[in-house]
Amino acid sequence: MSLFLRLAIGFILLIMLCWGSASLSAWHQTRETVNELFDTQQMLFAKRLLALEPATLQNVTLPKNKALLNHHRGKQDDDALAFAIFSGDGKLLLNDGEKGRDLQFADGRDGFRNGHLRGDDDSWRLLWLTSPDQRYRVVVGQEWDYRDDMTSDLAQSSIVPWLIALPFMLALLLALVWFELRPLKRLTASLHQRAADDDTPLPLARLPKEVQPLVLALNGLFSRMADLVQRERRFTSDAAHELRSPLAALRVQSEVIQLADDDEIVRKRALQQLDTGILRATRLVDQLLTLSRVEADDLRSEFQPTALAPLLQSVLAEHFPQAEQKHIDLQLHTTFQPVMNGHQLLLALMLRNLLDNALRYTPDGGQVTVNLTARTLTIDDNGPGVSDEALTRLGERFWRPPGQTQTGSGLGLSIVKNIAQLHAIRVAFSQREAGGLRVTLSW
Questions:
Q1: What is the C-alpha separation between 378 and 307, in angstroms, rounded?
Q2: How does the protein associate with the membrane (predicted)?
Q3: Where are the alpha helices (DSSP H) in 95-211?
């Protein structure tokens, strides 16, 4: 169901409920006012009758009002008011010539009560008053139906105009709602016509303030989706580009194995090359997936306090066999025990990549020194280092300094820089005075 239809139904129900409640309240208030007015009228009229001296009268009937009024072109309701005066013992002394003749004498207390006329089932409101000397009693009556009719007429006179105006008011209200919903309709049409890869922000002009947060949220979603699509495209392109060479090498080694029928040496060498190529392709895929995850996910919600010294010791212990194989002196110097709020697995991956780079590019018999202080971590090696021009490009995706003999994909330092950026760690590469490369992490 559309928003306009829901609002229309809601407005109709709300207006009808409010109009019904107001009509009922108006009818009750009008009834109370009419009863108070007519009770006051009956009381004043009864007091005027008490001021008469009807003791000398004996069943006097006044002329009928209708004849007088018709002669003077007037109108009167028989039920509007009726009166009679009785003696103390119940004899009728005076009546109005209309309904008053049917008023029945009642003894008892003075005041208002409900009763009936002789031969009439309609309910009347009767007021009885007794003269101070107890010689006669006055009764003034009025039919309840007359009061109810008067109440209905007065209530309708104030309610019916509003009832007539309700359709026009509702039509204007719905027209106003339809007019105010036009920005949402334009926004919907714009979204329908939007291309899947269009990340252009939606304009905020001519939009109500209540809709602007929605459009801002949509613009943010478009931006995030565009980044996600861009990362996915870059990942697909990088994977296709970088896996082409290892897969081609694997295919060549597979063909060599097939062609080496009886040459065991060639077959063995091809199998070794095949195993090396598989390891290289596996490592490349792992690095691509890791880089994609670090770039795509905001893992700050998984951060926790991490002690860097034990983590660094654990990573160094993993690389001791690699260092011993090349007779590299791997040293760790810690003067503080800093604790960082971060993702432990990603921090370990960052340190592992830095140590792996340092050990792979350090020649046999070289030295790799790791220094940990309260706010910095440095990794020094005495390898060949890189040129000043190459220092500025370290960490670019799939870029490796020229002249390198070690195998690699150029993703290790890219992963390091992305993890460091996630943890607000600054990464700096510099030349050592004694030769080699220094990597400095500061936070």
A1: 16
A2: Multi-pass membrane protein
A3: 144-180, 182-192
